[in-house]
Write a structure and sequence with these properties.
The chain has 10 helices and 25 strands. By secondary structure, it is α+β, with helices and mostly antiparallel strands.
């Protein structure tokens, strides 16, 4: 027990320390809360970008460069120094210019001009909507190359044809890239990697997106205090889960920004943001026999140690993206030729993860005010803060490079911002930091990606970080993960807007399945009336082989005339040809 003469100076030092901590916390909150006052949006001008990071040779299981340590950034326009979330007592040091449709004649136009600011095309460019009821009417003009069906920009030598049913664009090999059925309001995109994605949207912003294998989502509007949220129910691998997205206008279109339904305690964000007392080793449980890791092992190597949560979450996010790519059968033999994702690129991702943690911490602080969603939490901020932000691709996407040539992006690829869009533009310029080979854009390639697709990528990063932080909170003190301080162990709190929100749509799986069948019919209606439409030729028949996926076959033959599901088998008919798929691959050709 302390003696009386020692207690007094101890209490004095304790009180001084408490007051200093409170003062520092008030300063941090004032600098990190974007709603008091709102973060001023910088003019949409091209930022003076520094030279993008050049992917370096991978350091196998390397130790991360601790460039994101310190007291952390604000969530506004600074880099990774400043004052981030405090630890609350912590002991610390995872989707245009429209082409006129002709209903009486069929015309074909070949576009051979080199695009200047092409927008990205493909599976994730679906967040641009028609705007909430009573809101401004968005202008979907893309200031760049001519656009084809679905508003997707046309690659070099790509052709577009119009007929009474809709529009179809074809690549140089004659295969369809995009099909729009005007009567059914259905858009179908054929990805370079063999994936096929169908989408239909209603005037009330309800939307269904479907991919082969029954993956996709069903979306319906949800109103809270006069603000519209997009409520999506995703369905994949037999599991349904939901997410919420706030709508906001940006550059003449409406984007949908991920909005967390739950927030952690401030102490947890501090623990996740700041460096840990010492780097930790962590065993993920991935062995040599792990299929996805064996396939993508040439591209991805986990860190050997983790100095903070942002590095752990980086590996968590990349691993989850690659697992999803593998499960979706997006993997192909060319992936073995992938160039390893360098440690330098992974460190850039970790720095971006840290910024997103600070952003969510600031959002959590404003939740009690029942304020409107802040657009500065989305791409609007990221395109105006003079930071070369990093993105991890969360869904298959086809884009154009600086010459107007089309290349693909896949889940787990990494990109870095070079130049944001100008005031009248809807696409930004980025450089590829890492990709997995095959038809994907090669590392160091300069590409153009639409802001809608970039918003989807930020959504993917934030959603995966949230899942990872939940796992870390559950596993704290185990397997090397540092124990949480008492202030960080509080269970997450539901956001005000989500308190009475509906749960996952129980009809999502049925809606996605129905969308696939509708898309088959809608696409066939357009292709049958296109100049090059018709049944499969002798040449195309010879290309169909055992073991090919559904997307590979439809990429060769076009949409089927009929489609039947018989247990684990799917039977597609193409004129007089019948092809049977078992578990997604060709097992019989008649």
């Amino acid at each position: 027990m302390s003696t009386p003469w020692a207690a007094k100076p101890f209490r004095s030092r304790y009180l001084i320390g408490v007051l200093a901590t409170l003062l520092a916390a008030l300063v941090a909150v004032a600098q990190t809360t974007p709603t008091k006052p709102p973060v001023k949006t910088a003019p949409a001008v091209k930022a003076p970008a520094a030279k993008p990071a050049t992917p370096a040779p991978a350091a196998k299981g390397g130790t991360p460069a601790t460039t994101t340590t310190g007291r952390g950034p604000t969530t506004g326009t600074t880099t990774t120094t400043g004052r981030g979330p405090t630890t609350g007592g912590a002991t610390t040091a995872s989707h245009p210019t429209t082409t006129t449709t002709t209903h009486t004649t069929t015309t074909t136009t070949t576009h051979t001009t080199t695009p200047t600011t092409p927008a990205g095309r493909g599976p994730t460019s679906t967040t641009a909507g028609r705007g909430p009821a009573g809101g401004p009417t968005p202008n979907h003009a893309v200031h760049g190359p001519a656009a084809g069906p679905g508003g997707h920009p046309l690659a070099r030598n790509e052709t577009v044809a119009h007929n009474s049913k809709g529009d179809v664009s074809r690549r140089a090999d004659g295969k369809p890239a995009d099909v729009h059925n005007a009567g059914r309001n259905v858009d179908v995109h054929h990805g370079l990697n063999g994936n096929r994605r169908a989408m239909s949207e209603r005037p009330d912003h309800s939307r269904v997106v479907a991919e082969r294998g029954g993956r996709g989502y069903s979306q319906h509007p949800y109103m809270y205090h006069g603000h519209e949220y997009a409520h999506r129910t995703y369905y994949a691998n037999g599991r349904a889960y939901d997410r919420f997205y706030a709508r906001y206008p940006y550059h003449g279109m409406y984007l949908e920004m991920y909005t967390p339904a739950m927030y952690f305690a401030p102490g947890f964000y501090g623990w996740a943001y700041n460096p840990w007392a010492a780097p930790i080793a962590y065993s993920w449980g991935w062995g040599v026999g792990t299929p996805w890791l064996g396939f993508y092992g040439g591209y991805f190597t986990p860190y050997a140690v983790y100095p903070s949560a942002s590095y752990w979450l980086t590996d968590y996010m990349i691993a989850n993206s690659l697992q999803a790519a593998y499960q979706a059968q997006a993997a192909n033999a060319a992936a073995a030729q992938a160039v390893a994702l360098s440690q330098q690129s992974k460190d850039l991702i970790a720095a971006e993860v840290q910024r997103q943690i600070a952003l969510e911490n600031a959002e959590a602080a404003s939740q009690g005010q029942n304020s409107a969603p802040d657009p500065n939490s989305g791409i609007q901020r990221m395109m105006s803060d003079n930071i070369q932000h990093v993105f991890v691709v969360g869904a298959d996407l086809d884009v154009l490079d600086s010459s107007g040539t089309e290349c693909a992006l896949g889940e787990g690829d990494a990109l870095q911002l070079v130049t944001p869009p100008g005031p009248q533009e809807t696409a930004a310029t980025l450089v590829v930091l890492g990709s997995k080979g095959g038809v994907e854009c090669k590392p160091r390639t300069t590409i153009s990606v639409s802001v809608a697709d970039l918003q989807d990528m930020q959504n993917h990063m934030r959603e995966t970080i949230a899942l990872g932080m939940t796992e870390m909170q559950t596993k704290q003190g185990q397997g090397g993960i540092p124990s949480l301080p008492a202030s960080a162990r509080t269970a997450p709190v539901k956001a005000a807007f989500a308190a009475d929100a509906p749960g996952p749509d129980p009809n999502a799986a049925a809606e996605i399945s129905a969308e696939l069948k509708t898309a088959d019919q809608a696409e066939q209606e357009v292709l049958q009336t296109s100049p090059t439409a018709g049944g499969p030729s002798a040449t195309s028949t010879a290309e169909v082989k055992m073991g090919q996926t559904v997307d590979q076959v439809t990429g060769i033959l076009g949409s089927p005339t009929a489609h039947y599901d018989v247990g684990p088998k799917q039977i597609y008919t193409f004129g007089n040809m019948k092809i049977t798929f078992t578990n997604g691959v060709v097992t019989d050709i008649q």
